[in-house]
Amino acid sequence: MKIGIVGLPNVGKSTLFNSITNAGAECANYPFCTIEPNVGVVPVPDERLDKLTEIYNPEKTTHAIIEFVDIAGLVKGASKGEGLGNKFLSHIREVDAIAHVVRCFEDSNIVHVDGNIDPLRDIETINLELIFSDLEILERRLDSARKRLKADKKAQAEIDVLEKIKAVLEQGKCARTVELTDEEKEEIKDLYLLTSKPVLYIANVSEDEIVDAENNANVKKVKEFAKTEGAKVIPLCVKIEEELSGLDANDKKEMLEALGLAESGLDKVVKTSYDLLGLMSFLTAGEPEVRAWTIKKGTKAPQAAGKIHSDIERGFIRAEVVSYDDLIREGSMLACREKGLVRSEGKEYVMQDGDIVLFRFNV
Fold first, then answer.
1. What is the rounded distance in angstroms from the CA atom of residue 222 to the CA atom of residue 234?
2. Helix/strand/coil for 163
3. Cα torsion at 86, 92, 98, 104 (round to 10°)?
């Protein structure tokens, strides 16, 4: 799953990306420093794996992962070719969700492309460019559907949903704010509208404001706006996250405690992004490997088994499942079996986050 990190030039996107991935993307204080997108693979923090590793002492421990893509800064007029224009739009079309970095602090030493700080204006700038791009796609699709209508009356359903979304876009609102039925979603799923993607706003605050970031006036504005879209907001200080990313686990813990923070902003970003996409993890545990496997919420047992290997899904017999809490409390799978805590689940079982599973199969 890919998360695209977007925002205006010089809001902290590439610094955030470096902090998340330690990938060394180029950062500089001028627009369009990032031209081609940088890509980094990030483990999803999961304390459950640490506990299971203590129990099983496996040869390796493997976290679930998310791919982050650092996309070039966008400017007004991008949908008409300004800045990097369509190149930016093609890169963002390929991601599953958007992490939108918004600068919420003043600093005369950091250039702002519009001259001053105004997070709502900055959000609007990017959203409007994405809306303009989506409107072009909708117009083309509507023309095609209307031409088909005489020969195919089923095209009317497609026209109805396209016009419904178009009306909202023309009001300057994103497609994700439109309530659609499952049937309507099916009609437009191949459009890959930019403004339909789930979004997480990352409010970049100064070092002095991070502990009390919730009371930052600009952060409050971003949160109020996010409510209108059903989006999430995480305040963090990109500069602090950059410092934290260069520390080992103990030093990082000490710095967070000194700052009065329970966890790093980046851990919040990764966890929230995982949740934003409707993802969860089931776990497998043994001496060879303790591992988290990424699946969509609502996935049934055979399809979850297919994440490990297609043969396991094809030859699925049953899933032997124990809850993480039960295993940790009892200390071993054997103890769980003795107490009848290991369940045998069939093909219709819907996987739960944190299930520890052994799949039985025959091919």
1. 10
2. helix
3. -40
Instruction: Name which of 12-26, 47-61, 174-188, 332-346 the model is least confident about.
Output: 12-26
The dihedral through the CA atoms of 145, 146, 148, 153 has a sign that is positive
- Rounded Cα gap, residues 130 and 6, in angstroms: 12
Q: At how many degrees (to 10) do helices 265-276 and 238-245 cross? A: 100
Q: What is the pLDDT of residues 114-163, one digit of tens each?
A: 567 889 999 998 898 889 889 989 999 999 999 998 888 888 999 999 99
Detail the DSSP E strand segments found in 92-221: 97-103, 199-204
Task: State the distance between the two ends of the chain, measured CA to CA, in whole angstroms.
Answer: 30
Model's pTM, two decimal places?
Answer: 0.82
pLDDT, mean of residues 165-187:
92
Q: In what order do the strands lie in the sheet with 279-285?
A: 60-62, 289-296, 279-285, 355-361, 316-323, 343-345
Given CA atoms 214, 117, 243, 62 in this order, what sign does their dihedral have? positive
DSSP-assigned letter for residue 81: T
Per-residue pLDDT band for 71 (boundaries 50, 70, 90) equals confident
Dihedral through CA 170, CA 176, CA 178, CA 184, nearest 10? Answer: 110
CB 65 within 8 A of CB 40: no
Question: Torsion angle of alpha carbons 4, 6, 9, 15, nearest 10°?
Answer: -60
Backbone φ and ψ of 206, nearest 5°: -80, 170
Paired tokens of 334:
């054997």
Residues 6+ apart with CB under 8 A from 297: 278, 279, 280, 353
The residue type at 141: R
pLDDT of residue 216: 92
**Cβ atoms of residues 356 and 284 within 8 Å:** yes
Q: What's the CA gap between 191 and 169, in Å, rounded?
A: 15
Distance of CA 100 to the CA centre of its chain: 11
How far apart, in whole angstroms, are the C-alpha atoms of residue 33 and residue 57? 44
